[in-house]
Amino acid sequence: MTVIIGLEIHCQLNTQTKLFCGCSTDYREDGPNTHVCPVCLGLPGSLPITNRQAVIYALRVAKALHCEVPEVSEFARKNYFYPDLAKAYQITQYDKPLAVGGYIDIEGEDGGEKRIQLTRIHMEEDPGRLLHMGSGDRGRYTLVDYNRSGVPLIEIVTEPELSSPKEARRFLNKLRATLEYLGTFDSEKEGSLRVDANISIKGHERVEVKNITSYKGVEKALMFEITRQKGMIRRNATIVRETRHYQEARGVTTSARSKEFEHDYRYFPEPDLALLRVSSWVDEITLPELPDARLDRFMKDYGLSKNHARTLTGDLRLADFFEEVCTGIPEIAAPWTADILLGELNYRDMPISKVPVQAFRSLLMEVKKASVTDKSAVEVLRLMLNQVMDGTPPEMADEIIARLGLAKEEGDSIVEIVTSVLAEHEAAVADHRAGKPGAINFLVGQVMKATRGRADPKEIGRIIGDLLKE
Amino acid sequence: MGGRFVFEKPDPHNAFITRCMDVAYGDGPLSGIPIGIKDNISTAGIPTTCASKILEGYIPPYDAHVITLLRSAGAAIVGKTNMDEFGMGTTTENSAYGPTQNPADPTRAPGGSSGGSAAAVASGLVRMALGTDTGGSIRCPASFCGIVGLKPTYGRVSRHGLIAYANSFEQIGPLARNVGDCALLYSVIAGYDPKDGTSLDLPPPAPLQAEIQGKRIGVPAEFFGEGVNPEVADVVRSAIDRLADLGAEVVSCTMPSMRYALAAYYVTSMGEAASNLGRYDGVRYGPAPEFFRPWHDAYSRLRKEYFSEEVRRRILLGTFSLSAGYQGKYYAKAQKARSMVRSDFNRLFEEVDIIAGPTMPSVAFRLGKSCDPLSMYLADILTVPANLAGIPAVSVPCGTAGGLPVGLQLMGRHFAEDEILAAALAFEEGSA
Ligand SMILES: [Zn+2]
């Protein structure tokens, strides 16, 4: 059963002001309805004026994604009633979008490169937001916050060419990275990316899943929906063409009441705005280094593996962070950043921007000097991250090592410890001599325990071997 | 200097919805001149209702661009004039605040939808007023009330703050008792406004001077076609003869696209209206009523209660003409017809400087007699072509038929307001 997935991705453009008025888009910390004017409230008589910066940002994305920008594009009205939609229509683009075609290359299921074609990119304004007081249908009342109303969005529509949830996830990661490299998007902002997905099994009707608001959610929603559809096909049930909602908290999709989505949007050209003739602007746009180019450079300049390079360039802040700490020690910085640090950050749900660069680099320098074992170094790192979370100023690695006595045990002192461990565990020593395989690991473990990890396990193994030969 | 204007004359014809009794005014070309504003133009701090219950109590927090211009020209804004609800009508009877009477004959309608503005000027309550013209709504009441009204070129006057009925057609324009005042008010409101994306940046209007000598005036046969009252036609024909006497060269011509004009206008304007009026859902504007669940039901109940029948008719027709499956049949065809009208005008204006004809096919209607919507829509036949093409057009009084005023309509090329006002002045003065 071949899976066919197409995505429609709404991204907020990171402009200072809204798409059709001068209100600030920096509203997240502020009270409701504090970033509003007659235009974004849709007050009678107000008129939209297109934000040039938003158009330039959208064109930057179009250029980076290899789209074609037609000579003329046009804003249109999408008419529907909803309490958060100030004008009862959304200004969007319909049959004349800003950009058409384009593609994004991702790693396909087979590990090779796969090209996902784009249908179009168009610009539109965000509606406001509803806050339901009380729960669900029984809520007592609903409040409307128009701070978000008029925030510029682009909608990127793919051809139905993705064939698994994993590919969809990779596609989104690549897209997000590209948008961030362009400086047009901030993925850390709440609600900055929203996805609708069209999913079908080849030969059957397609289902639209709306309302996916997180990266993880996309993969989960797709997995759920594919399993559901495959199950129906196995039971010989018919898949009906419908719209489903993704319930983030439960990880399931549910059928939207059909009435809710029986929309006839009655599109027509927005009479308050002139046609957009911006194709010539594209030539003036210079693109920064994008993820693919940076990946190549990381492999070439720092000698990184493709995997490490891909991980490290997959996020603008992470890539910048890596370049800040890696000077002179790329072969240490790469695994420590891509494997160990990222793991710790994921566990803590901490953004890379919070990691103290100097402290982390001081740790890498200790690792380079081999003054601590890897195990102790991880301990130091955890301590540093905990300090960040507690809000205490992070210490440099050498201070922590000295304070906690984590310096690697070497030479005579370690031989002494090994000798006393062997004396304490005569039975294990006998087992080892009798050729039992697990005994040596047990003994190494006991030494590690005695040194609280401050010794190199390989070195301990060698010392035990030497001592027992005598 | 500035000062205060006390606005206390009686308003026997119901020209105003809201009156400001004691108004401050400033310096400038309009210093101290009382001006009435059609109630679909936003005025900060003064209720603006579009003559609709659904906007009852709405006080805009901002001034329309034209109001800012009027204030800085020193005008005394004395109130908001009556109109057909949201500009939809040809009589000013379709107002939640009652009909306005025509000062020339109080048993008759002043025309619409800027009937309040026209009546306020014609009765001497104010020296001039602003109206808006979507399909003839300045020129029709000017014609019926015997005053001068100008619909400027689309894009010449900022629409910022004008509560939209049909955005792609409408313009704010002046109404006054004579061409001079009309031109004066026009010269204050014309100009570029960065807050209106369809506004154009052009040199300011030229000083008004009577001029008709040597102008070629085209008279399309269709403007005297079926449905034009013969008495009205005679009055307008002799007015055009007078233009010839003053030195104009009169040329007969035809405008074949005329027969599509009305359909194109109504399909498009109703589509835009349906969209524009969607925001009136009873939540943020109008009387605060009891709210029902679900919200779909609340919206439809409130909209049914607070919109008049005419407004609901146009919303429904507009919604229908844009809906899936019908858009190609109606809306797209209307766009085509609209571009035919445009190219007809372009063709004519290669031959002539001004196009002349009657403003309205009849004299003012009797109040209470306009019950058939279709025949009311037909009355706009001579005015809508200018709105479809976006060209300027002025209506100037040219005599009477059966004792009631008749208007002569002069249409010009895009941005040729100066030229048609010069011709109108020449006609008014009877001099070249
Ligand atoms: Zn705003």
Care to describe what's here?
The complex is a heterodimer of chains A (470) and B (432). Chain A has 470 residues and is α+β, with helices and mostly antiparallel strands. Helices cover 40% and strands 18% of the residues of chain A. In chain A, the strands form three sheets. In chain A, strands 1, 4, 5, 6, 9, 10, 11, 12 and 13 form a nine-stranded mixed beta sheet that branches. Chain A has a three-stranded antiparallel beta sheet with strand order 3-2-14, with no helix packed on it. Chain A has a two-stranded antiparallel sheet with strand order 7-8. The N and C termini of chain A lie far apart (65 Å). The relative contact order of chain A is 0.09. The model of chain A has no long low-confidence stretch (mean pLDDT 91). In chain B, 33% of the residues lie in helices and 17% in strands. Chain B has twelve helices and 13 strands. The mean pLDDT of chain B is 95. The interface between A and B is medium-sized, with 27 and 42 residues. The structure holds zinc ion.
Instruction: Please summarize the sheet with the most strands of chain A.
Output: 9 strands, mixed
Tell me the number of strands of chain A.
14
Strand-residue proportion of chain B: 15-25%
Number of strands of chain B: 13
Helix content of chain A: 40-55%
Largest sheet of chain B: 11 strands, mixed
The helix/strand class of chain B is alpha/beta
Number of helices, counting only DSSP H or I runs of 4 residues or more of chain B:
12
SSE string of chain B, helices as H and strands as E = EEEEHEHEHEEHEHEHHHHEHHEEH
The best one-word shape of chain A is elongated
**Overall form of chain B:** globular
Q: Mind telling me the C-alpha Rg of chain B?
A: 20 Å
In terms of structural class, how would the helical and strand content of chain A be classed?
alpha+beta
Hetero ligands = zinc ion
Quaternary structure state of the chains depicted: heterodimer
Strand proportion of chain A, as a percent range, falls in: 15-25%
Task: Work out the radius of gyration of chain A.
Answer: 28 Å
Mean pLDDT of chain B: 95
